[in-house]
Amino acid sequence: MFAPGQEQLSQQDLKVAEVEACQTVRNAVIGGILLYLSPFAVDFAKKFL
Range of 19's domain? Predict the structure, then answer.
């Protein structure tokens, strides 16, 4: 019922977590843009084949 508190993260751990979070958000945004543009790329490729 009474669990001990979590350990405090060091400044280095916080910085690593922040960089990882930024990369995750950036990759999600890029993935969304690529998924949005993929039908247009397929149509463009079909015109040349």
Answer: 11-49
